[in-house]
């Protein structure tokens, strides 16, 4: 009986918090996430992957979705699931262009130094490191969900 | 942005005394590096031993610095932490930069190359 209750109970988030929609807010969120994932038993390399992908996702929220907001904020939630760690990021900023997240192809590396790309890596890193990525616009809110195959 | 520089054999070693090169400091970092890029040193060794995290903004800043250094001089990266190395590897920027395990290795590498 007790086992059944454990199986059906909704998973407790290891982190669920609002942050200022600024580059410093992103730093705070990542600090909290690292601490929470460490506590959940993530190895150093898993922490590195998690920090990179969540940093890129949050940077996009702050730089694009929340750019015009007067009191920008976002919500970060991390929840332990059977096959890793679910990450949910919510904000009340602008929706993604075309209502979907970018494909995130790696910029080509040109032969000339002056043509080297200085950006366009963010969504590539997210797509490379995140699993089961979904984006939905719910009313006035953006909700980005993905899974990290860590803490298995 | 805290940077510490020392000269050696005509080259300059610039150590980044920050734990993170991220969106919060990328522009500042690029601006702070400009003086070294425009200097007379033929080689700049960027020592990243204290940097624990670089995001795509930080990576973009380091690419911009490489471009500012130009073809006639060189920028060399040394002492990347595993997380930083991972970002360079995933984005294949490890094929664009000269990367050495440590500052000493960077000097030996340069010595061999000349």
Proportion of residues in β-strands of chain B: 25-35%
Average pLDDT metric of chain A? 93
Summarize the biggest pleated sheet of chain B.
5 strands, mixed
Helicity level of chain B: 40-55%
Largest interface: A-B, 29 and 27 residues
Whole-number radius of gyration of chain B? Answer: 13 Å
The residue fraction in helices of chain A comes out at 25-40%
Distance between the termini of chain B: 32 Å
What oligomeric assembly is this protein in? heterodimer
Radius of gyration of chain A: 17 Å
Sequence of strands across the biggest β-sheet of chain A: 1-2-3-5-4
Largest sheet of chain A: 5 strands, antiparallel
Helix- and strand-based class of chain B? alpha/beta
Low-confidence stretches of chain B: none
Query: Distance N terminus to C terminus of chain A?
Result: 25 Å
Number of helices of chain A: 4
N-to-C SSE series of chain A?
Answer: HEHHEEHEE
- Would you list the SSEs of chain B in sequence order as H and E? EEEHEEHEHEH
Number of strands of chain B: 7
Explain this structure to me?
The complex is a heterodimer of chains A (152) and B (114). By secondary structure, chain A is of the alpha+beta class. In chain A, 36% of the residues lie in helices and 27% in strands. Chain A has four helices and five strands; from the N terminus they run H-E-H-H-E-E-H-E-E. In chain A, a hairpin with a 2-residue loop joins strand 2 and strand 3. In chain A, helix 2 runs antiparallel to helix 3. Chain A is globular, with a radius of gyration of 17 Å. The mean pLDDT of chain A is 93. Chain B has helices spanning 26-38, 56-69, 82-90, 103-113; strands at 3-8, 11-16, 20-21, 43-47, 53-54, 74-78, 98-100. In chain B, strand 1 (3-8) and strand 2 form a beta hairpin. Chain A binds chain B through residues 23-24, 26-27, 44-45, 48-49, 51-52, 55-56, 59, 62-63, 106, 109, 113-114, 116-119, 121-122, 124-125, 128-129, and chain B through 20, 22-24, 53, 55-57, 59-61, 63-64, 66-67, 70-71, 82-83, 86-87, 90-93, 95-96.
């Amino acid at each position: 009986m007790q086992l059944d209750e454990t199986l059906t109970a909704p998973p407790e988030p290891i982190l669920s918090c609002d942050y200022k929609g600024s580059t410093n807010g992103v730093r705070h969120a990542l600090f909290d996430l690292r601490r929470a994932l460490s506590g959940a038993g993530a190895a150093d390399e898993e922490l590195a992957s998690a920090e990179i992908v969540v940093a890129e996702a949050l940077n996009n929220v702050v730089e694009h979705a929340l750019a015009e907001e007067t009191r920008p904020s976002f919500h970060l939630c991390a929840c332990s699931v059977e096959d890793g760690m679910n990450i949910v990021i919510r904000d009340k900023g602008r929706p993604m262009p075309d209502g979907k997240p970018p494909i995130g192809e790696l910029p080509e590396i040109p032969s000339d130094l002056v043509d080297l790309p200085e950006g366009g890596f963010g969504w590539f890193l997210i797509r490379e490191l995140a699993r089961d990525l979904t984006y939905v616009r719910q009313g006035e809110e953006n909700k980005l969900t993905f899974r990290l195959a860590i803490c298995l | 942005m805290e940077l510490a520089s020392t000269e050696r054999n005509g080259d300059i070693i610039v150590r980044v005394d920050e734990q993170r090169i991220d969106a919060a400091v990328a522009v500042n970092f690029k601006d702070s590096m400009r003086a070294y890029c425009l200097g007379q040193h033929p080689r700049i060794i960027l020592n990243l031993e204290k940097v624990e995290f670089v995001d795509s903004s930080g990576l973009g800043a380091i690419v911009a610095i490489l471009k500012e250094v130009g073809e006639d001089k060189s920028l060399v990266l040394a002492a990347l932490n595993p997380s930083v190395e991972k970002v360079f590897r995933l984005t294949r920027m490890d094929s664009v930069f000269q990367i050495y395990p440590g500052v000493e290795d960077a000097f030996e590498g340069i010595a061999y190359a000349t």
